[in-house]
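Q: what sequence does this backbone want?
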């Protein structure tokens, strides 16, 4: 019984995604997709490409101009995205 409880706890602990701070103007697509909740690899690549084409993001409004980046995605990740 103890082993079962421990294994269940360990699975829950390691399967919980923890977002980390992301410097959105410096991070590569892999970092963006792995650290931000709900950001797929293709979306992260769009973010990086938009940054290359249009310059750095200065605010949430700038980031929301990337196709498929909506308010809900920004809201979920607001505390992790750094624009500096």
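A:
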């Amino acid at each position: 019984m103890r082993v079962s409880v421990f294994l269940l706890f360990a699975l829950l602990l390691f399967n919980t995604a923890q977002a980390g701070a992301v410097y959105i103007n410096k991070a590569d697509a892999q970092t963006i997709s792995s650290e931000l909740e709900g950001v797929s690899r293709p979306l992260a690549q769009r973010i990086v490409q938009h940054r290359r084409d249009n310059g750095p993001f200065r605010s949430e409004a700038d980031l929301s101009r990337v196709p498929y980046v909506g308010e809900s995605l920004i809201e979920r990740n607001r505390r992790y995205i750094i624009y500096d």
